[in-house]
Hints:
Elements: H1 5-14, H2 17-23, E1 30-31, E2 35-38, E3 51-54, E4 59-62, H3 75-83, H4 87-98, H5 105-108
Antiparallel strand pairs: 1-2, 2-3, 3-4
Helix pairs in contact: 1-4, 3-4
Amino acid sequence: MKIEQAIISRIKALVDPELVLESLGFDVIHRGSKELRGPCKIHGGDNPTGFRFNLDTRTWACFTRHCEGENERDLVGLVQRATGKTFVDSVRHLAELSGIDLNNKEQVG
């Protein structure tokens, strides 16, 4: 299934980042006006605030075990890294969380 870039962008803009993190098993221990912080589930969580999600750019960074240079820092990439899902399955995960039915032409059209 091919998902249009415009639909992916809409899903990423609509989904609640904190809900995404919760669905992936992340523990948000600090909520700021621009950032969510907590241990990184992907990298073992050895730094209590090593994982950071920027609410303005809707991207993530991790300062645990030197992973700052990794790619795919958007929400789709986060789902992929945390779950091992494919790109399309990661988009489906986000669509479910945002309430968008990818099979409903009215919602995705």
